Every structure is written in C-alpha cells, then in structure tokens.
Amino acid sequence: MxxxxxxxxxxxxxxxxxxILSNIVYDLEENRVPEELSNSFFQILxxxxxxQEIQEPLIAFEEAIKDEYLCQGHQINDSPENYSRVVDLxxxxxxxxxxxxxxxxxxxxxxxxxxxxxxxxxxxxxxGKGKIKTGRPLAWVTKTSSLxxxxxxxxKENWASIIRNRLGLECLRNQEEQLIEIIYSTKVVAKNKFFxxxxxxxxxxxxxxxxxxPDGWGRTVDIETYEEGLPEAIHPPIPFxxxxxxxxxxxxxxxxxxxxxxTFLSKLPIRWSSPQHKKYIx
Length: 282
Known about the structure:
Elements: H1 3-11, H2 15-29, H3 35-51, H4 57-64, E1 83-88, H5 89-96, H6 113-121, H7 124-127, E2 131-132, E3 139-143, H8 144-153, H9 159-167, E4 178-184, H10 186-190, H11 199-202, E5 218-221, E6 228-235, E7 238-239, E8 244-251, H12 261-266, H13 274-277
Antiparallel strand pairs: 1-3, 1-4, 2-7, 3-6, 4-8, 5-6
Helix pairs in contact: 3-4
C-alpha cells in the first residue's frame, strides 16, 4: 500500500491527523478491529486517496469509512441496565419528536419549565418518530448510573455543563443549549446490541480516543480537563418511542476553556510515531 505513504505523510501535518493515526494503531495493536475489516478499509482508502484531484487526507479518511464498518467493535455484554443518550433539544425535536402529536408549542426555544415537564410526561409511543441516530447510522450512549452519580453530587444548575464536558460533547462547547437525557429501558437495552467504539466510529472527531477497559466500554474525553470522562458505547439506529423516557438536564453554559489540541494529544494511550507504526498502514 505504498500509495498510502502519501496519505500518512499528509495526515502527519495536522494534530487531528496524528490523533486519528494514533487511534488506528491502538485499535490494531489491541485487536479491537477485525482484520478483514481493516484490510478492506485500507484498500478503499487507497483508492479514495489516489482518485482525489486535490488530496485532502481527512476527507479521504471520512469517505473511506463505509456504513458497514460502523458498530463493529467488541460487543458489550453487560447485565441489562438503563443506558442514556444526551442530546440538545433542537436535535431531539428534529430527529425524534412528532410535533403534530405533542399538545404544546415547542417551536419557540428555549422551553419553559412547564413545557419541559409536559415533554417529560409525553407518551413517546405516541409522539416519538424515526430512529435514534446521528448524522451517521449510529448513536452514542453512556450508563444512566454515571449520569445519576453526577446529579447526586453536583448542583442542579451545573448538571448540563458538567455532563456536556464529561461526555466530550465538543460540538456544544461554545453553545447554550437545553440538554435532554434519553433513557433506554432495560427492555430496550436487552433486545439491542451495543459496541465499544473504534476509529471507524470516532471518524474525524478531534476529541475521540480509542480505549480498552475492563468493563468493555469505551471512555469519553472530558472537554475541559482532557482526562478520562464517562463510559461510552455505540449502537446502530434504534426505533424511538415506547421503552424510552425523557429527562431535562438544564442548559449548558459556554465552556471557559478553548480546545487545546496539544493537551488532548498528550492523553492518547499510543502516540503515532512514523518509523515505529507505519508498518500498520503501509
């Protein structure tokens, strides 16, 4: 795969590229990705990189990640417990709420406390729609117990900001948004599959680190401290409705600190070294 030497060299020119290369090496060294899957990916990446007129390494990497590569890490085999997904209110409304079926006007935001209370009480079997997913066919979750621990130990007005930080929600760093917790019942958890994320799933995120842990879950990166955050797992799209509950978490405050790529890179379990690690890709 000598063609990929050029791709690697281009990736080495950015800190995001170095983080991605580091995650690739970690996942391959720890056998977190099936060999046939990684071989297929590198073949597609080679073709994608070769055909680009203006070679953009991050774009080539993203385009080479096919949907079938997602949610292919180690399956999590917990005893069924509640899982939670945290989303901003606009995303919840866009993806998963049928506005025609909700007996309140939620077009204007932020919502009042009484509106949020009604939303929490809504029959999601009636007002829910679509599937739980992101812009890609997967969704990220954590353990409900991890969020409950934060709620027990922190002032209510700080819940949203602390949870955003601990979950590594970099996209909300500089935004004031109402956060909603989607709680998966044990029944929903038991009948669906959840996986530890790998570099395919992290894609071009500048806050993702592949991680092997005793409990099989991945770990987020706290966007304020860059220390290990909360357990994280992923799942393919799941129909939203009966079996889920909504809980308000409050409104985030703008994070005081800006993104620090140098500190982030220092937290990687394996730091990319071209002479040592190039064998994995070229």
